[in-house]
Design a protein that fits this description.
Length: 263
């Protein structure tokens, strides 16, 4: 049982590699009360596990049941310590209409957010991705703002669930890994958006797009153009907001990009 990396923080995606369990084993497990989505990998089993940026630090109990042909069923248990991460505070000023919403707009924004939450709870049974995830945009600008506690026009708001990559309007955006386009839409805060389902509960999110080059249901490959950077939705300037969901957990895209997966 190996965790990569071994030290785990709030808002992080980690890689769990279970060795000594055959690829054809039936495995089922949970951590912190949420199901583990294991798949055959390198002569064993593996899973991508995500801890939401607001999950309380502390021990996360895990349990995995293993059923292998010709052997008695086994149950493995243990605990992983989730460490606290200090997130920055970000003060922003945006147009008042983008923060003090009229009731109709408020209802729209809430309904859109709930639709996305529902989507992230759906789990495609098959793993659609392979190998490493790539940054969806070329450029020198390091992304910023993951997990930032946001104070917008002087009022505290919910933390920032993704990373922002500032770039000129029209800069190409590509898919981070293979998957299926789960949603294309126009939402109030995210603007023009694309969401890619990579299977087993893993999703990547691309917000504030100008042009979109894919349609819902399309199969997509790593590096395939999905659209261009824009300034749609609530932005302070043109940027790509790149987000990663492992089920309902919002995780730092940098942690997904750094997973050393070889297949
Ligand atoms: Zn953002």
């Amino acid at each position: 049982m190996i965790w990569h990396p071994p030290r785990v923080y709030q808002g992080q995606a980690v890689w769990l590699h279970l060795r000594g369990v055959r690829e054809d084993a039936t495995v089922e497990g949970a951590i912190g009360g949420r199901p583990l989505r294991l798949f055959p990998y390198a002569g064993g089993q593996a899973a991508v596990v995500g801890f939401d940026l607001e999950t309380k630090p502390g021990p996360q109990a895990w349990r995995i049941a293993v059923l292998e042909p010709g052997r008695d069923p086994r149950t493995l248990t243990g605990s992983l310590r989730l460490h606290r991460r200090e997130f920055p505070v970000q003060r922003l000023t945006v147009a008042p209409g983008m923060v003090d919403l009229d009731p109709e707009t408020e209802r729209r924004a809430v309904a859109e957010s709930e639709r996305l939450q529902t989507l992230f709870r759906m789990t495609t049974a098959e793993r659609l991705w392979r190998g490493r995830f790539v940054l969806p945009m070329a450029g020198k600008e390091p992304g910023t703002g993951f997990g930032a506690r946001r104070v917008i026009n002087g009022k505290p708001r919910s933390p920032h669930g993704g990373t922002d990559y500032p770039a000129p309007v029209g800069t190409p955006v590509v898919v981070a890994n293979a998957g299926r386009v789960a949603a294309v839409g126009e939402h109030f805060f995210p603007g023009r958006l694309v969401i890619v389902d990579h299977g087993l509960g893993l999703y990547t999110l691309y917000f504030h797009l100008d042009q979109v080059a894919v349609a819902a249901g399309d199969r997509v490959d790593r590096g395939q153009p999905l659209g261009t950077v824009g300034a749609t939705g609530r932005v302070t300037g043109p940027n790509l907001h790149f987000g990663v969901q492992v089920g309902p957990a919002r995780v730092d895209p940098a942690s997904l990009l750094s997973l050393d997966v070889r297949d």
